[in-house]
Design goal:
alpha/beta, 6-stranded parallel sheet, globular
């Protein structure tokens, strides 16, 4: 399904300390471990930034990160956790960068939503993510598993508000021209019509 671009609308970059989020179910194969390790290294550099996990654990999935583990990271001051939200369009207004170091995706809706809200994205160069993220255009695609490259990409955006804005605007354009619900629905109906 496409994204409701009338709902997920652009907004100004928030002022103050940049916020980087990983939105999704808290699964190891969503790249939670990589996100945490990179967050810690960036914080060790004394860079002013907040890292946030947005989503809940999945008790029925063996790849789920435990809540106890997340609580430890929060207690250590490595990250924050915001619970799963049904109004993600409001969440994107408060964040600067969306990061999804997932191991594999179908078509990652959170990255399309982020782009529609004019936020730059950072992801591993894996199926699904590479269909949405155009490297150095609306964000950065980095080699799968390369935490150093992930760290560098995030720091480049954290330190460059102008680059965030430019990539965000391009992300919005991509969402409008390729992934809006109107476009995707029309393509779906065209396929059905051909079949019928």
């Amino acid at each position: 399904a496409g994204v409701e671009i009338e709902k997920f609308v652009p907004s100004q970059m928030p002022k103050g300390t940049p916020i980087v989020i990983l939105p999704g179910r808290m699964l190891w194969d969503k790249g939670v471990g990589e996100f945490i390790r990179v967050a810690q290294r960036i914080k060790d550099r004394k860079i002013d930034v907040r890292f946030v996990l947005v989503g809940d654990i999945d008790l029925h999935n063996p790849a789920s990160v435990s809540q106890a583990q997340i609580d430890k990271w929060v207690d250590y001051g490595m990250i924050e956790q915001w619970s799963r939200c049904d109004d993600m369009e409001k969440v994107y207004q408060h964040v600067s960068i969306v990061c999804l170091p997932s191991y594999s995706e179908g078509l990652p809706k959170v990255l399309i939503e982020a782009g529609s809200c004019s936020r730059p994205v950072v992801a591993f160069d894996v199926p699904g993510c590479r269909e949405v993220v155009q490297n150095a255009v609306n964000g950065f695609l980095v080699e799968f598993g390369n935490e150093h490259a992930l760290e560098t990409a995030l720091i480049n955006l954290i330190n460059d508000n102008k680059l965030c804005k430019e990539m965000g605007l391009k992300g919005r354009k991509i969402a409008e021209t390729e992934y809006s619900d109107v476009i995707i629905n029309a393509q779906t109906f065209n396929i059905w019509n051909e079949v019928i």
